[in-house]
Design a protein that fits this description.
Order of helices and strands: HH
Shape: rod-shaped
Radius of gyration: 47 Å
Strand content: under 5%
Helix content: 55-70%
Number of helices: 2
Largest sheet: none
Mean pLDDT: 79
Length: 120
């Protein structure tokens, strides 16, 4: 085969190669790229794990605070029920002064109903 045919098959004139030819550089470049992608993937996995741990820690703190607040709300509700407003005793007779107040019906009736209201 003539030299010109060999040159045209190999892509042109003579190739200068450093360290073993162009294929060698391509292989090393591919290897470096694969190693770089692996390192990036590993670093990303570690970052994701640390981020996940941080999020889990914050969620645990929030759960703890939520439990504390729920206990306080339950405590307030229990205390409010214990110290709740006393209803009037239905068996007790209450006396009101009604002299000078507007009256409907007989003023000497056996039963008197008094309505009390507060306008504020």
């Amino acid at each position: 085969m003539s030299q010109s045919r060999r040159e045209s098959r190999n892509g042109g004139g003579s190739q200068t190669s450093l360290g073993g030819g162009g294929e060698s550089w391509t292989r090393w470049g591919t290897l470096v790229a694969v190693v770089a992608v692996g390192a990036i993937t590993l670093a990303n996995g570690q970052f994701a794990r640390r981020s996940s741990e941080a999020v889990e820690g914050r969620l645990a703190k929030l759960d703890s605070r939520l439990d504390q607040m729920a206990r306080k709300v339950d405590e307030v509700a229990t205390n409010a029920a214990k110290a709740g407003r006393q209803a009037p005793d239905p068996n007790r007779v209450y006396t009101f002064k009604t002299e000078g107040s507007p009256v409907r019906g007989a003023s000497n009736a056996a039963v008197t109903i008094v309505e009390v209201s507060d306008f504020q």
